[in-house]
Amino acid sequence: MNYEIRYSKLNERQKQAVNTIEGPVMVVAGPGTGKTELLSMRAANILRRTDMLPENILCLTFTESGSIAMQKRLVDIIGREAYGVSVFTFHAFGSEIISRYREYFYNGADFNPADELTRHKIITDILQELPPKNPLKTIMNGEFTSVGMIISAISDIKRAGLEPKELTAILDANDEVIDIAEPLLIEAFGTRVNKNTFDKLASVSESLAKINEPQPIPTISRLSDILRASLKRSLEEASEHPKITPPLTKWRTDWMTKSEAKKPIMAARKQQIKLRALVDIYEKYLENMQSAKLYDFDDMISQVVHAIEQNPSLQAELQEKYQYIMVDEFQDTNHAQMRILHALTNNPANEGNPNLMVVGDDDQAIYSFQGADIGNILDFKKHYKNAELITLIDNYRSAECILTAAREVITQGSERLENRINELDKNLSPHALPEKPNAEIVTLPSEGSEREWIARDIKDKLKNGQNPGDIAILARRHADLVSLLPYLAKAQIPVSYDQNDNVLDNDLVSQILYLSNIVDALANNDLGHANELLPQMMAHQAWNFNPEILWQISLKAYKNRLQWLEVLQSKPETKPFANWLISCARASKVLPMERMLDLLSGIEAFDEDYISPLKSYFLAENNAERISYLQNLIALRTKLREHQPDLRKARLSDLLEFVKICQQTNTTITIRRHIGQDGQSVKLMSAHASKGLEFDTVYLIGATDTNWGSKASRGGNKIAYPENLRLRNNNDSPEERLRLFFVGMTRAKRQLIISRALHSESGKELMLANFLAGELSLKATNLGDDFQENHKNEIIEIEWYAPIIGLPQATMRDLLDEDLARYKLSATHVNAFIDITRGGPQSFLLNNILHFPSARSPYASYGTAIHTALQFAHDSMLADGKTPLPEQIIDKFKSKLENEPLTAEELNHFTQKGIDALNIFLQNKLHSFTRDQRAELNFSNQQATFKNVRLTGKIDVASIDEKNKTIAVTDYKTGSPLHAWNKGADYDRIKAHKYRQQLLFYKLLAENSRDWKNYKFIDGILQFVEPDKAGDIIDIRLQEVSEEELTNFTSLLEAIWHHIQNLNFPDTSNYSKDYAGVLEFENDLKRGKFKNSIDTAM
């Protein structure tokens, strides 16, 4: 649909937003008001009305799905030009800045991510060194109780982009205000609040206006401004209140507290004491992380903030590049993200009026636990005084009765733009006219009867023809949804739900841990411990031991007072297993942990006498839970790698120590498990997860005060923040729960059904959520004791059998749909798919789509170390204008290789091999390194698309000529050099074929990327690092590419893409495992031979 047609369908306010392309604009977009279309249309309008290029527009979203949706709309409106528009999540934008401008971030050191356990240890070590009176050094039962909240608070500070000195400066400025305001407020309030207090506080308000403390960070408000504005609003409320004093009493409760000496003080003073103690810990934490060469997830955005603020040249380049900026879901921005926006828009040339549009809704600000600050949207007009305010009120989603009820709920909140801006009216106007609309609240006697009624009501709707995919059940807590699942399963209602499971409780992982404990016990000659564990492990079906044999072993061990291992060795049917255990025990002393896990899980084997059955049992193709088991195994090994990045030194005992620490610190390794099938199924999700979605019918369950209202359980973080530094909502505020409920209500199009129980499972009385207790337009339905009595037996039965009621299994399509929506094709994936000599599509599915975990091969480790050393050389040249000395580059190679999972023998072999190769390579090639070369150029955020195939990749070296707008690609290869593209043995011909296709892929990648599409691709170079037999360093070039070759390759890409998207992975067992077989398979792919071979089970 073209621009004019889409524009004609916009309402007047949407058109106003689309047409207002200059200066700052804030669009307040309530639920269902069509903001996604507005953003895409405005981007298209900017390109129509200005001479800007697509890459001059920056669109920032908060979710990857939001980013994809915006990109798709842009493509529909303006075609391929849309791929040039910079559409990022904030996190992806940070990654892009670091990747594109490496010279501002490179410091020559290799840093590893710190996992939760490592951070826990660092904080614990710091606390041990602090004096006993430190307010954050709290101990119970010999353990520090503040570690978790300190880690959480440091994450908050990092998400605000604050360094220790910046936080200290803010606290110093706050103390100036507190020292002045505190005595004035104490005097004004006296011993109690009365009518005279009003005049005294009015005088205090005038005094506060004279305070002018520093403002260290422009995007963080002064405490005096917030204090004065809050007091002003309270005085206004008091003047209109019949008793005057209640609003003033509430204000005192919010802003004042008692000291340990029971004397009145400002609450902010108490907060500042803990925050100053936190600053000291934060500073030591950063020092310890730096010395250990560690970083955490929150560092990236913080690094980007300071790189832009502290490097005028980088800031100027980004300001020149991004002339128009749009931000979706602006209410969810945190302080660091706001600082990035400020740094991108504070160009003096803008005179305070940058081309910045933000779109959001303060009533849907529900992510404070992630650092989001509703103050960013509330204070936007304060930062940009000339900002135009546009309010979208035309709702195209919900029935009028639903919008009326939602309005009655949300207006009970105080932190709202409508309370700040007099002329703002957010009352939504309904345009949807569904048949039989309904908004009601249903009350049931107990939580069990609530669940039973929900299942029965949905069952009735499905019998009457309603599509299950149009129904959603929303809850504040996942526990409420989990409790409901057995009722829905018993009623045979198809459901779709993502449940978080603890990896350590998974059956496959449990077996690996049992086996690891046994092997480790045998390795340490602890036969008693191994004897305890063997019967439990061998009883599992995976080991396929006949129960009668186990009984015989047990009886013989008991009668003859033998260890189980001794009996196992004496019986022919179990001797191979026993010998295998002993071999594993010996190997565990020398083999790295990763390699041991491959042996224990059955990925590798010592010999053919015995192979661990775990892989064949749990990951068999006919196992319905195969992917779930695989995901748990991946999660375990990923966490292990994060915790123990020095893979060469890690042993099997480190796995067991890791699990032990997890249990001691209550650290769970969680994984999302998909229950049921998508499509025609009822969706169960948290209210948070429902944001941005809509359903015909919504059940909003558990609407009690202890769940949603004023008595709901609150977060446990005891570190509170002053009002001008709201890094997270202190203690999960009632205001935010109110907004969350509003979000849940406004997901409904035709029917909104709110349910609540009068009594908990323990019989405790439950009150209705406080914001639902007043006079509301919701229809009230009370299903009394009769319902409970009529269905008592069913409720008791389901509650009793809940743990064993079978839940529906997800198909592979359901599990992978989300991944496929984000999937991008890489050169590595192309070659893995077509290489039938190494498994072809089936191997590709297991290793590249399902990411089957296994230890890196020694040759792969060697290649990684070589690439790391050469990247170090290129990055040094880019940052410093000169290359490091050859010995420094070799040291980098050795350092990297030492962290790989190699045995001592392998390490010695590959170290010498690399030193020999690099000495010759650097002697021949180091002089050719230039500052025009960018190492590891990452295209993951470049929106590279060719014929609807999304492309990605990381190029070893891109030689970029900015003057002539050309780009050449160099790909480093270890291994025996090739001298030509189409000569040599069959193995070499396959290798050359894959290498050439890799360079062709890079040509397409560069030519279809956002930033490099206008550059001419002049060459692809295959650079071998190791010398040939004559001692020469060889490279072969892509040179001229014929139109026929390129057409054939692009046809292959399209075929592979469609096979992956359709989960169609053909059986290639009938092809010859040689070069001719590879070419035959590629030709069959291109001509569509396998279009009808999709596995229906997927």
Describe the structure.
An eight-stranded mixed beta sheet has the order 18-17-19-16-20-21-15-22, with helices on both faces. The protein has six domains: 172 residues, Rossmann fold (3-Layer(aba) Sandwich), CATH 3.40.50; 181 residues; 184 residues, P-loop containing nucleotide triphosphate hydrolases (Rossmann fold); 162 residues; 178 residues, no CATH class; 75 residues, no CATH class. It is 49% helix and 13% strand. With 1098 residues, it is α/β, with parallel strands linked by helices.
Features:
Rossmann fold; six-stranded parallel beta sheet; 41 helices; 1098 residues; eight-stranded mixed beta sheet; 6 domains; alpha/beta
Q: Which class of secondary structure composition applies to the elements?
A: alpha/beta
Question: How do the strands line up in the largest sheet?
Answer: 18-17-19-16-20-21-15-22
Q: What is the radius of gyration computed over CA atoms, rounded to a whole number of angstroms? A: 32 Å
Mean pLDDT: 89
Strand residue content: 5-15%
Q: What is the top-level CATH class of the largest domain?
A: Alpha Beta
Main sheet record: 8 strands, mixed
What is the straight-line distance between the termini? 34 Å
Shape: globular
Query: What do we call the CATH topology of the largest domain?
Result: Rossmann fold
Oligomer class:
single chain
Number of alpha- plus pi-helical segments: 41
Number of separate structural domains: 6
